[in-house]
Amino acid sequence: MLGVVETRSVSPVFVGRTEELDILNDALAQAAAGTPQALLIGGEAGVGKTRLVEEFATAACRAGAVVALGGCVEIGADGLPFAPFSTALRALRRELPDELAAAAAGQEEELTRLLPELGEASGGRHDEEGMARLFELTARVLERVAAERTVVVALEDLHWADASTRHLLAYLFRTLRTGRLVVLATYRADDIHRRHPLRPLLAELDRLRTVRRVELGRFNREEVARQIAGILAAEPDPTQVDDIFERSDGNAFFVEELAVCASEGCGTGLTDSLRDLLLVRVEGLPEIAQRVARIVAEGGSTVEYPLLAAVAQLAEDDLIEALRAAVNANILLATPTGDGYRFRHSLVREAVSDDLLPGERSRLNRRYAEALEADPTLVPADQRVMRLASYWYHAHNAAKALPAVLDASVEARCRHAYSEQLRLLERAMELWDTAPEDVRDRLRPIDYTEVYPPCGCDPATTPLRYLDLMAEAAVAGRLSGERERALKITKRALHLLEDEDDPLRAAWFWVQRSRLVQALARGDGWKELGTAQELVRGLPPSEVHAEVLSTAAAWSMLHEPGPEALSSAERAVEYARMVGAREIELNARLTYGGLMVDAGSVEAGLAEMQEVKDRALEEGVSYVAGRAYVNLAAELDAVGRTREAVPLLQEGLVYTRKFGQLDSEAWVWANLSEALYSLGRWDEAADAAAGALRVGHGAKPRGAGASCLAHVALGRGDLPEAARQLAAARSYLGTHDPMPQHTLPLSCIEIGVAAGEGRLLDARAELARALVSDIPPGTQRYGWPLLLAAATAEADARALPAAAQGRADALERLREAVKKTTTDTPIWLAHEQWVRAELARAEGCDTIDTWSDVVTCFEALDRPYDLARVRHRLAEALLGSGGDDERDRATELLRLAHAVADHLGARPLADAVALLAQRARLALKSVPDRRPADPAEALGLTGRERDVLRLVAAGRTNRQIAEELFISPKTASVHVSNILGKLGVSGRGEAAAVAHRRGLFPPGDGDRLIAG
Question: Average pLDDT in the 542-559 region?
């Protein structure tokens, strides 16, 4: 038997990588200054990624940083959910226990999904934002832990990462904003083939400017020589260096293997096959050590010593000797915690595992599973269920694998690892037909499923059905973003149900299909909901029936609000109460309250919504509470009670952020932006809109944020920015699922941009498209601004000859829309008056009274920008009358309007007000006159007479003077007569000569006049 030979294959000298280390050290310095850093380190297998990270970690520790390492764990072909983050957080808990406890205070229960030792995770609600809540919490915990001390989180072997780990890493890289934090991840670049799941993530992260990507290349000959010298502790022979460099091609790990083989005399005849190269040193071990290496290779990335002992079934001394041989030969390493073993390099483990015979592999997996079943304490608690499922599955024992895989799917769901839950459920469906019938009969829905409500059966006694697995998988796919897979499962389920008399289950799957169709931009989902409603029609009340009605009512509220939607919501509330489905009841009541407000029962509807919010908060129904903050504030703003909406929205931001409801938070930001815009707080409105874009998980809330930014840009006259944000909003919202709350505001902005660019025909075309099906009842909050934008565009273009053609049709279309649009609250009554005034202006028949009524309406409302706009129009009408009293009133109105426009940065309004004031010779600001004494005063001329004299000197007739100064020709004639008398002259020519001789109008004075 061969004796044990200790081999040193790792060079004690760190070779090369100067540039890469500089990048890492620079990232550490920037993080220490308070700017979080994100890095990706890629390179082929064996090129030296781990060694680089180890060197950097050592340097970081010397600099006072805390380093938390986490590796992606591979069990067979399965990655453990969140494994590297769990390991890294566990390391932080050891190193910074007080800081981590303070950072997670109040959120320990949610964090147990990553750190089970903190306690037991509650079931909680499983929705599209469940994973997002966990991600947001993880990001904030890391930021808080790294608030006072630099922290390095290093995640290795990202190519093995499960989907949940990949999603969390992407979220961190996108959202980390504060903290002295470095997050780096390594991956094997040569493994990233076209269909590798990591490939899309790398492409996404490449687009982030905050992520630095480091690619490790192979060593050159000089570096290989230094590496060999370190391994051999002597200068190598140049010929040997040439040979190893040629055969290794500069790969650091291959250099190590070849150098050791050469030093041990096993290099001769060694094949160039990578697998043979990796196995040659394993085959040099004693037979018993080779056997142990094969066992370790099939156990996963790391195998605990007690588990290894149970599987190897060797005498303890023999096992220790075998392990010592493998460790001394640098094949195996003890884990950093000292409780297990792993291969020094994953390439060797893969080669050993690939060398196993098929029967040998399944036998080893069976022994691992049997050992773990006999003693569950052999592995960490948070890995136990997942590893047992993997071992039984790869042992090809369906009877054992099916329940184990289902247990693992429940564990994944509890951790919000929905991608892994979906994979496991698909594996369970694969095993279903091969598992013995008696095994399937013992499975119960209550143990493994929760999404499909029990309808007329006891989940504790009814056997689990294949359709139950399909239901769980469909929801897991939707929650994880794997919507295509979920839709395929849903279609298969509905196909199977064609042969069964189970309308409730079929209706439930149609509801899922509706949601998936909308999410995949394949339609608006109404056809699917209609099918579901037909299936439950006439059936006794059930939870499925209530959910169908509630979902249909919510759809109608957004797409076709009206009496039918109100009736559907009312029945959903009734059915939910009858079957005790409390969450569905609260959700349906919230929809019902919003529809009541839209139907005109404002106070009753708002009271209902407030009651739902209070009950949802009290009962901990966070999803409904988050939705209530969004919808109640929206309805308050819709009826003009915007000041009440703002504090509610601010409260909603705190709540939705606390519970990680990213889309609800984004909707709150968007609604807050609209409210602040209405209240004249435009800078804050822009910030709030940016918040919606920043935190939004789905496309629709981000589309709403972009729409708000377009609205602000349009108000400020930045037409290119308004057009850009409008295009972004349309891109987010798509065309597959049109809703009035999106389409009407976007058309309003489109009309505003077109009118601002002088494209009246485009504005008319957009209005025609928007009014194809009239403004639906209950959407007046979006309809009136649209009609106003179109009417204003027509009025502003009245003097343009090109606008004459088609004007009559456009105005008639607007009048018809005005007649059909609801005015149930003061805010929309005011808008109706305003639109009618603009239509009158478009025909040149608006009067002072027309605009006085509009101003009076808006003076009672809290809409400063709107009030400034109508004051501008009233001032314009007043100046057209020509009286001095009207001029004084117009001056005050224009000053007020200009002050608001200047404060908001509303350049188009400010420019319009300034132009009107200039034409009317009105001063917008009361500024003391610091100019030299006016010669006109010495002649006894009033300010108005001076203005008239200047125009007389310019050769203007009385009619031209009247038009210029907004006075009547008769008044102009009176002013001219007074001037001739005061100057003591008999005609206009003499008056002009006196004016020039006295220097009344200095050169360059132009047309600048002062107010009289």
Answer: 92
Residue 147 pLDDT exceeds 50: yes
Give me the pLDDT at residue 121, please.
Answer: 62
Read off the pLDDT band of 931 (50, 70, 90): very low
CA separation for the pair 551, 525 (Å, rounded)? 11
CA–CA dist 751, 747 (Å, integer): 6
Residue 813: phi, psi to the nearest 5?
-60, -40
Residue-level pLDDT at 778: 83
Residue 961 tokens read as: 């003077």
CA distance 58 to 54: 6
Distance between CA atoms of 714 and 729, rounded to whole angstroms? 14
**Does pLDDT of 22 surpass 80?**
yes
Distance CA 712, CA 689 (A): 9
In DSSP notation, 437-468 reads HHHHHH--HHHH--SSPP-SS-TTTSPP-HHH
Left, alpha or beta for 64 (phi > 0: left; psi -120 to 50: alpha)? left
Q: Does the pLDDT of residue 440 top 50, yes or no?
A: yes
Both tokens of 277, joined, read 């190269």
Tokens of 1011: 């107010």
Which residues lie below 8 Å from residue 246, measured CB to CB, with a gap of 6+?
A: none
Please give the backbone phi and psi of residue 55, each rounded to the nearest 5 degrees, phi first: -65, -45
Q: Cα(641)–Cα(647) distance, rounded to whole angstroms?
A: 12
The predicted pLDDT at position 575 comes to: 93
Q: What is the DSSP string of 78-94?
A: EEPTTHHHHHHHHHHHH
pLDDT of residue 704: 94
Residue-level pLDDT at 11: 65
- Helices and strands: H and E segment counts in the chain: 50, 10
Strand 66-71's sheet: what is its strand order? 66-71, 151-156, 181-188, 37-43, 211-215
Strand boundaries in 74-157, DSSP class E: 74-75, 78-79, 151-156
Cα angle value 606/608/610 (rounded, 5°): 70
Maximum Cα–Cα distance for the chain, whole Å?
A: 137
C-alpha to C-alpha distance for 796 and 803, rounded to whole angstroms: 10
Nearest in space to 52 (alpha carbons), one of 156, 142, 206: 156
Let me know: does 290 contact 283? Beta carbons within 8 Å: yes
Residue-wise pLDDT tens digits, 293-340: 999 999 988 899 999 999 999 999 999 999 999 998 888 988 877 789
Q: Nearest CA to 320 among 305, 307, 335, 331?
A: 305
Where do we find the tokens 């203005």?
A: 947
Burial of 918 (C-beta count, 10 Å sphere; 0-12/13-18/19+):
middle
Confidence of residue 249 (pLDDT cuts 50, 70, 90): confident
Element (DSSP H or E) covering residue 39: strand 37-43
The pTM score is: 0.75
pLDDT at 1012: 31
Least Cα distance to 126 among 409, 502, 458 occurs for 409
